[in-house]
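Form 7-S
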Amino acid sequence: MTNAQDFSKMMQDMLGAFPMDASAAQDAFKTQAALAQKMSKVALEAAEKSTEISAKWTKDTLAKLGDVTVVKDEPTDYSKAMTDFASATAEMAAENMAAFAEVAKKVQMETVELMLAAGKDFSEDATAAVKKATGEAAAAAKKATAAAK
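Output:
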């Protein structure tokens, strides 16, 4: 009573009716993979540099904190040590935030450069694929017209 349609056969027939160039898809995939590799490299370099900044900042803070914990002769020396620590910490924070900003700026510049280059590559790939598809479609139309006569 109910027969299941074979959709896979129908799709194969439909796709077979249209000329398709798999190399265009492969080229687009290769271009995308190359972009992903370059973007990953930018992200990993930024993460590595950020980790280095964080580690140095922590190490420097701990060294300055060591000066605070040393036994002092006068009670006023403790407040001076804390004041010096606070001042040094503020200075380190400013320096390290500037270093983080440089990393972010570099990532932004490299990302823009990669995206512009990728846009150019994708545009070239698309243009080549369209030209090839147009040629194949025209040839198929001529062939169909000749066969109809």
